[in-house]
Amino acid sequence: GSGPYRVITNQALFGFDQDTKRMKLLEVKPGRTPQDIQDLVDFELIIPPDIKEMAEPTDEDLRLLRDVIDAEGYFLKRVIRK
Asked: Is residue 70 one of the residues assigned to a domain?
């Protein structure tokens, strides 16, 4: 069967090992280390030696997330500004 391909959090990007299906750390938020992320979870992550730092979202990325992907605000918290 199929399962998730990627998991994205506000701290890191994860993938999955094809053979074992274990979660694998792919990228970390700027200022975080792989050990910081490991300390946040209750299971052992696969941590390759070539972990990348996540790029900050562009204005276009944020627009797509807010206005197209989650226009109703089900997943992204909204702050109403008047």
From this structure: no
Instruction: Give the dihedral of Cα atoms 7, 1, 19, 46; nearest 10 deg.
Output: 20
Single out the residue of 66, 14, 67, 25 nearest to residue 48, CA to CA. Answer: 25
CB 13 within 8 A of CB 4: no
Q: Give a yes or no: residue 24 inside a domain.
A: yes
Going residue by residue through the chain, which has 82 residues, state the pLDDT in tens, using 9 for 90 and above: 578 899 999 899 999 999 999 999 999 999 999 999 999 999 999 999 999 999 988 999 999 988 999 888 888 776 555 4
- Expressed as residue numbers, the domain containing 36 is 7-55
The verdict on residue 64 lying in a domain is no
Alpha-carbon span 17 to 31, nearest angstrom? 25
